[in-house]
């Protein structure tokens, strides 16, 4: 996998080796909209049945349901240990991405309890990274 993505960005501190694609769009909400929680997910471009959703959202009709509860999946876009496959992090400069090939629980030791407690424990997990395992954008 890492050989295949060499021509794009890797979070190893070196930055991109090619110019990444840029997507720009505008969303306009009507004035009576109460709350907007986007359902963000990723999928393989050649096969939309291989996808990763955030665990609090339902899958789509394109998902291959036969893959649920196989390998390291508990059927809800989480690992068998209860860690989410994808999360949305909205922080202004307070989060540092783990270095390439560094597991999230190694980069952020408090993350596992936060994730497995549905966010009720270790609510400031992102403030306690292991500095050697995260990327400092100013390196």
Structural class: little secondary structure
Mean pLDDT: 79
Element order, helices and strands?
EEHH
User: Overall 3D geometry?
Assistant: globular
Name the strands of the widest sheet in spatial order: 1-2
Helix count, DSSP H or I runs of 4 or more residues: 2
Major beta sheet, specifics?
2 strands, antiparallel
How large, in whole angstroms, is the Cα Rg?
17 Å
The tally of beta strands, per DSSP, is 2
Stretches where pLDDT falls below 50 for ≥5 residues?
Answer: none
Give the % helix.
under 10%
Distance between the termini: 25 Å
Assess the beta-strand content as a share of residues: 5-15%
Descriptive notes:
The chain is mostly loops and 139 residues long. The chain has a domain of 50 residues. Helix content is 7%, strand content 8%. It contains two helices and two strands; from the N terminus they run ββαα. Strands 1-2 form a two-stranded antiparallel ribbon. Strand 1 and strand 2 form a beta hairpin. It is globular, with a radius of gyration of 17 Å. The model has no long low-confidence stretch (mean pLDDT 79).
Defining key terms:
single chain, 139 residues, little secondary structure, two-stranded antiparallel ribbon, 8% strand, globular
């Amino acid at each position: 996998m890492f050989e295949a993505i060499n021509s794009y960005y890797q979070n190893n501190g070196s930055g991109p080796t090619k110019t990444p694609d840029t997507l720009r769009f505008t969303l306009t909400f009507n004035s009576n909209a109460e709350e907007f929680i986007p359902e963000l997910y990723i999928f393989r471009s050649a096969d939309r049945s291989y996808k990763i959703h955030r665990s609090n959202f339902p899958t789509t009709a394109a998902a291959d349901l036969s893959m649920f509860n196989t390998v390291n999946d508990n059927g809800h876009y989480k690992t068998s240990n209860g860690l989410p496959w994808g999360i949305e992090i909205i922080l202004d400069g307070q989060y540092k991405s783990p270095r390439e090939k560094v597991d999230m629980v190694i980069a952020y030791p408090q993350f596992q309890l936060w994730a497995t407690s549905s966010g009720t424990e270790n609510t400031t997990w992102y403030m306690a990274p292991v500095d050697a395992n995260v990327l400092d954008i100013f390196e």
